[in-house]
From TrEMBL:
This is Putative regulatory protein. InterPro entries: Anti-sigma-factor_SerPK (IPR050267), HATPase_C_sf (IPR036890), HATPase_dom (IPR003594). Residues 31-145 form the Histidine kinase/HSP90-like ATPase domain. Signal peptide: none annotated. CDD domains: HATPase_RsbW-like. Keywords: Kinase, Serine/threonine-protein kinase, Transferase. It comes from the Bacteria. It comes from Streptomyces himastatinicus ATCC 53653. It holds the Pfam family HATPase_c_2. One of its GO terms (molecular function) is protein serine/threonine kinase activity.
Amino acid sequence: MAVALRQRSTMAPHMSSAGVDMALRQESLQLPARGASVAAARRLVRNRVPHWGFDEDVCGAAELVMSELFTNALVHTASDQILCVLRAQERRSLYVEVADQGGGPLGPMPREAGVEDESGRGLALVRALTEAWGDRPGAAGGRVVWAQLGALAR
């Protein structure tokens, strides 16, 4: 089964704190809300993050965060499409965002998974791997769940 996708890449100039133009690297990918799309979301990270100068540890953490956030949007909302966004600023901060179309709870709610539970650890992983994470209302409804990973680039 083929996965339909729409991908967009941008490099927009912005000003750093020193007043120097830096490249804002951003990649977005809209995917169907299906289990097979989780792998495509992970590939987005794997194909971009190393090229932006981040090391393997950051790439691996971002890949896992993208997977967890995408899976939560898939399982807990009534979305037909899920938008994945990667953004790197000044090669020190990497942002992962997943936007759903809504139809689920008001926002992500971390929970404590028991030893025998097969799910419920995703947001605990996100919390452990990131400097910060949260959610906000989406521009066209739904929610955007985001995470910030910080690292020094190679």
